[in-house]
């Protein structure tokens, strides 16, 4: 019988090798399939524990957990896009190196937080309040709750949070913009990121979270685009669903410059 320590090490190595193979297979499926969002979702889920660990290890105290995680997700997607297996490195090694760049977000946001005028001066105040209330309530606080805690108008809280998301969705993809636009995948990648931050994008609107997930088939939801079928699924009438789809499309376009096709 082999040594127990050797058996343990061997088992762990085998598990790591299997995980690497699984990650690579999912990456190949996403890459060869034209980088479709529904192929991206399994990759994002596999790396979810790593992102959570990085948030705990790297996030500065006055930075929002949700915003920092969104920044990590953007770097993760860029790592998937730029990965070249012919260079010899494993996918997880390439990802680890790429995620290091998210640390710059701390400095960028901390510098913005000290600007005395406009919305940027409220960033650190709102982020600290949000983290405190999340720990206290055991859930994401509403905009009104953040407003009550900070003494800021709810409208200001909402504007600051949306500005943060726009900044991340825009600047994090900016370097790869020409290539992404040529492939027509830029908007798809942004929508995949939005799918993982719906409480920020549509605060206090869980019905829009379900609508988004069904329309784009994200977060393991069945993809449904028909207004009739969505009405049955969400327990609303067709007119309500039609209005919600219009509102969702307008919001994505106005706030983030996205123009996804959400019609029947």
Taken together, the total number of domains comes to: 2
- Largest pleated sheet: none
Mean pLDDT: 77
What are the secondary-structure elements, in order, as H or E? HHHHHHHHHHHHHHH
Give the percentage of residues in beta strands.
Answer: under 5%
Low-confidence stretches: 112-117, 171-185
In helices, the fraction of residues equals over 70%
Q: Based on CA inertia axes, which overall geometry fits?
A: globular
**Which secondary-structure class do the elements indicate?**
mainly alpha
Radius of gyration: 20 Å
Summary of the model, kept short:
This protein has helices at residues 4-32, 37-46, 48-58, 65-82, 91-99, 103-113, 123-137, 143-150, 154-174, 177-183, 186-195, 198-201, 206-216, 227-234, 238-256. With 264 residues, the protein is mainly alpha-helical. It folds into two domains: 4-193, no CATH class; 205-264.
Fold blueprint:
Blueprint: H1 4-32, H2 37-46, H3 48-58, H4 65-82, H5 91-99, H6 103-113, H7 123-137, H8 143-150, H9 154-174, H10 177-183, H11 186-195, H12 198-201, H13 206-216, H14 227-234, H15 238-256
Helix pairs in contact: 1-2, 2-11, 3-4, 4-5, 4-9, 7-8, 8-9, 14-15
